[in-house]
Design a protein that fits this description.
Blueprint lengths: L11 H32 L10 H32 L6 H24 L7 H6 L11 H24 L4 H17 L9 H36 L3 H22 L12 H12 L1 H21 L9 H24 L3 H7 L3 H31 L8 H35 L4 H9 L1 H39 L1
Helix pairs in contact: 1-2, 1-3, 1-13, 1-16, 2-3, 2-5, 2-13, 3-5, 5-6, 6-7, 7-8, 7-10, 7-11, 7-13, 8-9, 8-10, 10-11, 11-13, 11-14, 13-14, 13-16, 14-15, 14-16
The structure holds protoporphyrin IX containing FE (2 copies) and fe (ii) ion.
The site of fe (ii) ion (FE2) has 4 residues, from helix 7.
Length: 474
Amino acid sequence: MLTSIKTDNISPTKKLGMMYFRVAIVLFGAQLLMGLIAAIQFIYPNFLFEIFDFSVARMVHINALVVWMLYAMIGSVYYMLPDETGEEAVGLGLGKLAFWVLTAAVAVVVLVFIFIQVGPGKESTIWFINEGREYIEAPRWADIGIVVVVLIFYYNVFFTFLKGRKTGIMTVMIANLLALAGLYLAGMFFTDNISMDQYWWWWVIHLWVEATWEVFVGTLAAYALIKIISAKREIVEMWLWIEVLMLFGSGILGLGHHYFWIGTPEYWWEIGALFSSLEPVPLVAMFVHVLYDWGKEQGANGNKPAIMNGPAMAWIVTNAFGNFLGAGIWGFFHTLPQVNIYTHGTQFTAAHGHLAFFGAYATILIGMMYMGVQGAYGVKQMKATFNSKMAIFLITFGVMGMTIALTIAGYEQVLVERAELGGGWDAFFTAQNLPWYVQAQVWRTIMGIVTFIGFVYLVLDLLTIGTKAKSQEV
Ligand code: HEM
Ligand code: HEM
Ligand SMILES: [Fe+2]
């Protein structure tokens, strides 16, 4: 069905980008369905018990999340590469092969997750079934495959960069991709000591989402603003360099906020508290950047907004708000050790996790998919349709609703389970059975359904908006 998107108008490199986008959107759908199953299991613990366990639904939910985002990121890089460098990708044949190898590996890994739900934890389990590291659970064989595929991708992008125009956006992209890919290695080796294991695992998770991925979306926003509202490259790139400096400045040692309670030395309390508290600052800068450029371009055009891609712009503005709220505000809430000792591992964490991943990443990657569709159909201007509006409204409303519900559940856990009952095993279950918690879980599920309906509109829109825009043009 997704092949019905026409790609005749674009270059081979961009076509490869579109292939990644297609898989990304399918995995996004799978992610949401898994989330719904896990959410229902919160309310009816027997739902699909021993057929499709909560542990598996949750695992596929968050691994599909990470994988679809990586697909959409690679898609975005291939999509913008010819525009930025003025060249087609070097080693395109190899790039295509890597795409199919990766997609086949992802399919096998998911099937194994689904068919082998329980079993012993042996050395062979790590190699063939599951590595047991939240968010990056792929077994070792797939890890090695992923490294090979990423090396091919990096080779393609790097040599295209060397050959072509060297813009500021691409320079940041090249350096950042190296760090992003390199960090994956920190999650690949195994130690028997759980503290040490977690110590390295956080390098991947935290240094991805709070450093390298943030820089990555900074480059996407810069590229997209130039394309959509003709923002001035010098200004956009100046912002980008400032953001990079601040993101790495706070994000790297901000890692300390995950080292409070895992057996690492106590100096991490101060380091984590200080640097992670600074993390919202670059997020404010990114927020101001988008709105500033937008306002400035509107002014420059005699107050006639010249938006070349309505839905993409709407998603990018949502990204500016969502990144600031989900990562900046909801992250800051629980980042001090004095607070985190009460909130650690409650539904509050899940509230932040949802709004941050959605706000900072899902939004802008969906925006890039709209950029892809516009390019694929070769239309100059693409206005938001009814479906575009329903998609962005329902998805954003649904995720906000889930976040609020989970925040309430977390609040109840902090007060009852932690503060009042002292946080023991019994306290955990007592708190989970109280009405605030149960009602919050019901609301989360309802809002999850709203999100899913929004997703259906999104797919419908991505499949049809190109043809509609084309027909309006002639
Ligand atoms: C887009 C950026 C971000 C994303 C995607 C993100 C996502 C997440 C996720 C998914 C978790 C849960 C990890 C787990 O399963 O244990 C988490 C934990 C946490 N995040 Fe973020 N986060 C982001 C930015 C931030 C920022 C900027 C701050 C602070 C200012 C922050 C503070 C925290 C803290 C303190 C925890 C630990 C919660 C606990 O103790 O249970 N995050 N984050
Ligand atoms: C249909 C909508 C969704 C539903 C019903 C849903 C449901 C769930 C459930 C039940 C969990 C397990 C929570 C736990 O173990 O306590 C979970 C975890 C998670 N979901 Fe979702 N989800 C949905 C959409 C999303 C979206 C759109 C994103 C991000 C873009 C996302 C990101 C996450 C993350 C990062 C976690 C791990 C959180 C943590 O460990 O703190 N989910 N989700
Ligand atoms: Fe973090």
